[in-house]
Amino acid sequence: IGMGAFQTCLSLEELSLEDGKGIIKFGGNIPNVKNLYIGRNFTYTGYNENRKSVFSENDNLEKVVTSMSVINIPDYAFYNCKKLKDVYLSDAVCTIGKYAFSGDLALASFEVGVSVKNIGAEAFSDCSGLLNFVSHSTIPAEVGTEALDDINKLECTLHVPQVAEIDYKKADQWKDFWIENDLPLRHKVIVSVDPKCEGMGTVSGSNGYNNGDIATLEANTDEWHRFVEWSDGNKENPRTLTITDSLIIFAKFEYIYNISSQPSENSISVSLNDSVPGVEYKWYSLDLKEDITSD
User: Fold this and answer.
1) Between 20 and 172, the higher pLDDT residue
2) pLDDT per position as a tens digit, 3-41
3) Which of 4, 101, 109, 201 has the least CB density, counted as fewest CB within 10 Å?
């Protein structure tokens, strides 16, 4: 997304970067958005001393939500967004970069999922108004220099899973909070398409789930392909699971038909793996005028 792409969109209040793979590269900032949904990882190529990230220095941004496709929050991602109040980072986020939320004076509620492992230096410097910090991880994230020091620990409550309370009370910078062990145990579920079946279908069900929750996994495809099974051998689709641990599972697909060529015989054979209800199949014969190659 090039420099200045949204420069004159003065009334833009909501921006949704839909879920997907790969990285969005921003060449310029987006100055006026109020509510932001981020569905994939992003980087900023227009760095300078005055503008450190695509969303930094945004005077209107109030809420940020990320999807299960976002793994990293870049350095300076939301630096000096003075009206930013609420942040929810999904259970897929592993790292929060240095100065990511530094200077966000209005930040009152921050929630991060089960996967966070590292929080960069001064990530929350000058966030003195923070009232609730929710961490679903059972292992306290490693924190960089003064990452949490500017949070007013007398006013801000740290909410953690019950099983993790002792570890947080021992961990550097975390131990200074008033800690409430009022969170249920939470698990990360990643549902994906088998790499060998890319382009054959889509899946849903990736999310963070509390222990004992029911998750619904579903694989969808078109008239040219069919769902075969999940990577654990189960063939139900859609499928429900009681979540008691973190899970990574793949959906396998195949073509409904197979085409093979026999160059030596100048012939093509077509076989049908399976038929789809409601789809009509017609067979055609071709008079081959040229030799068939292996391609």
Assistant:
1) 172
2) 878 878 888 889 998 887 778 888 877 877 899 999 988
3) 4
**Mean pLDDT computed over every residue of the chain:** 88
Residue whose C-alpha is closest to residue 79's, from 62, 51, 99: 99
pLDDT at residue 42 greater than cutoff 80? yes
- Look at the block and give the residue holding tokens 């108004």: 129
Residue 55 reports pLDDT greater than 60: yes
Give the chain as a 3 state SS string: CCCCCCCCCCCCCEEEECCCCCEEEECCCCCCCCEEEECCEEEECCCCCCCCCCCCCCCCCCEEEECCCCCEECCCCCCCCCCCCEEEECCCCCEECCCCCCCCCCCCEEEECCCCCEECCCCCCCCCCCCEEEECCCCCCEECCCCCCCCCCCCCEEEEEHHHHHHHHHCCCHHHCEEEEEECCEEEEEEEECHHHCCCEEEECCEEEECCCEEEEEEEECCCEEEEEECCCCCCCCEEEECCCCEEEEEEEEECEEEEEEHHHCEEEEEECCCCCCCCCCCCCCCCCCCCCCC
**Residue with tokens 């695509």, as numbered in its chain:** 54
Tokens of 245: 């641990």
